[in-house]
Design a protein that fits this description.
Distance between the termini: 14 Å
Number of helices: 2
Radius of gyration: 22 Å
Shape: rod-shaped
Structural class: alpha+beta
Strand order of the largest sheet: 2-1-5
Length: 103
């Protein structure tokens, strides 16, 4: 493995670890409804404000509710990891061929 391949492999590992550390979160309520609440560290789910309200006679009557992520959204993490693996693997192959062709 040449130095360029080592650099590509290191970058791929760094991107994969970052993707697994800062993940998208969902909040699933008692009815089973899923709502995205954004990204947060794997050990600190994000907190979001949810606004409910109606307008009556020009007045807004509303309630604010705080919701917290309670499930990592794997359907958004896994495709990102797949792209990182494919790009890293492809670059490793390309840079390995380039070195062998120059010899």
């Amino acid at each position: 493995m040449n130095s360029l391949q080592k650099l590509v492999l290191l970058a791929g590992i760094v991107f994969a670890v970052a993707t697994l550390m800062y993940v998208p979160w969902n909040h699933i309520d008692d009815d089973g409804e899923k709502q995205s609440v954004g990204y947060g560290l794997i050990n600190q789910p994000p907190v979001a404000q949810e606004q409910h309200g109606i307008h009556i006679l020009g007045l807004k009557i509303g309630v604010s509710e705080t919701i917290q992520g309670n499930q990592v959204d794997a359907s958004r993490v896994l495709p990102t990891l797949a792209v990182i693996v494919l790009v890293t693997g492809g670059l490793l192959v390309i840079f390995g061929r380039t070195k062998s062709m120059q010899s």
